[in-house]
Amino acid sequence: AMKINQDTVLRGKKVTLVPYTAAHVPRYHEWMQSEELQRLTASEPLSLEQEHEMQRSWRDDADKCTFIVLDSERWPGEAEENSMVGDVNLFLTNTKDPTVGEIEIMIAEPSCRGRGFGKEATLLMMAYGVRKLGITKFEAKIGQENEASISMFKKLHFKEVAVNSIFQEVMLRLDISDQERQWLLEQTNHVEEKSYAELKQPAEVLDT
């Protein structure tokens, strides 16, 4: 099955979301060598080969939707690898309720943190989830010590619903009422949806 977002680019003001491809893996792999990021994302370091396998599974699994977050000022123009700032994921793993999406955001580039990149990327992904994937409830699980991320989700109307002291995680939740849906679409009405294949054409072709 073709992944729904395989050719989707979501272009916002600060960030642009593009599908996660094999070309992004080396940079991604480099990020994940960071102990801080391993801790914040509760993940184990993988070899480059394992990271490539992971990317293939992301591409092929129906219950995951992922985008790489690029800096809108840099791309298109600079190479994608040099424009990457993080990733945003949606897991549709609740078999009883396909309208629940668990959202995850990582701004891996330290120079890009605290600049609103994570917030815009999360809003873009949420609007995409609501419009294209039929999501009506979002959940986020965040390490208790990750205060910046917790406060960002609260600004996006998420409420803290549980604390898992074993995993030291906070669970936040947002139900998309009509009012929330309206707000979300207003927050993202500047976003342009484009074709990844077309945008990937060399820049000089686009200029003519």
From TrEMBL:
Residues 35-177 form the N-acetyltransferase domain. Its EC number is 2.3.1.308. It is an enzyme of class 2 (transferase). Keywords: Acyltransferase, Transferase. GO terms for molecular function: tubulin N-terminal-methionine acetyltransferase activity. It catalyses: N-terminal L-methionyl-[tubulin] + acetyl-CoA = N-terminal N(alpha)-acetyl-L-methionyl-[tubulin] + CoA + H(+). It holds the Pfam family Acetyltransf_3. N-acetyltransferase that mediates the acetylation of the N-terminal residues of alpha- and beta-tubulin. Belongs to the acetyltransferase family. GNAT subfamily. This is Alpha/beta-tubulin-N-acetyltransferase 9. It comes from Helopsaltes ochotensis. The gene is Nat9.
